[in-house]
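Hello,

Following up on my earlier ticket. Below are the two sequence lines again, exactly as submitted.
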Amino acid sequence: MIVTWFLVAAQAAPTSATDSLLAHYTSQGATPDAARGATFWATEHAAPDGGAARSCTTCHGSSLDTAGKHATTGEPIEPMTAAERLTDPAKIEKWFGRNCRWTLGRECSASEKADVLAYLVAGGAR
Amino acid sequence: MSTRTWDLPLRLFHWGLAASAVAAFLTGDELTRGRAHVVLGTLAVGLVAFRFGWGVVGEPTSRWRAFTRVHTLPAALSAVTALALVLGLALTGVLVLGGEEGRGPAAGLVSAPMGIAVHSVHRALAWAGVAWLAVHLAGVAKQSWAERRNLVRAMVDGRKGVTGPAVRLRTGVAVALVAAAPLVVALPDRAPAPLQRPVAWDRECGDCHLAFPPDLLPARSWDAMLASEDHFGEFLGLDPATADELRAWATAHGADAGETEHAVRIAATVDANALPQRITTLPWWEGIHAAVPLGDEPRTRCADCHPDAERGSFDARAAHPEDRRET
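Thanks for your patience. The regenerated structure is below:
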């Protein structure tokens, strides 16, 4: 009974940043898929400078629950599941913009971003 | 007949000043022992302040009124010169500390170029003190010979002649406490004036590395860096409004604005045609870190050794492992 009430309340809450972004990507033809996102997250890409291959996990670490480390500067990176994450669509877009270029050498498609976001949400990030 | 000319408080003052002045001179190397140097200099000023007070309420032979009577003219001039040197060193020291390091009572009141200029005066006074000491020792030796008496020993046990009345040690302690009171207030470091950074600076720079103070690169370097999308191999992608805001702020406070000691030194050592982008390739940076064992640590982690780096203060004393603060 109480559980049901919570579920209803959660659905009635204002649209979250991730929901609105997922809706945005969907409107661009994406079909968010957490499993595909998980694969994408760990897929390695050759580095343009011939250095070690890069993936999202290079900096974010192997688990969404643990802190990562910036590959160049060594700056600690909050776990993806940290509470303050994924609350601002513009910020999410900014980091997709920066990090896709570094990791893949190109921008990510709406479909790839939708998959990653679905994976992060399923993994406990918002 | 009592001719005890140097009472106990005066003798303690003499040797205390001698020890603190010599130690301050030996710790003058700002890169290794900045903190000790400031404390020792403060102690010397405190002792001089005591001497002035003791000249008013102290033993008769220590009073200013008797000053020319108990001293020969050269000795009187020498003593006054010593007191003046200490005060001059203290004054210039405070200005250097405020101008170069942004610390101490003059923090925020003295510009960095002014602090650097006063530093040469401070050094000159210190060497004048060394010269003074040589003359002083020669004078003591000559006078001891002339009087057939060991004056160094007299300055230890107080006897120039036979024994005299008990010294007023309690009064001496009271004067010393009064003299030290202002110093206790002045001694704690005033925190470096925090550089007011735009929120966007912290967000856009500080998410990936230390939000470097802009006075580490010339304005033209910031202009170029913030106009480029390629940021050391990463995509910066600032929105135009943010880029403009950051560029305006960084160029206004670049090294060439000379707001800090390191800014002045960086601006002076960067080639006029150079457009440096990496702070760690600056001739100034390489020179100052040549002997620092940095290992493989990323060169963006200034704060590991300089806890106040983000606030624009690279206090030299924090740069040495034995002084590292726990964070």
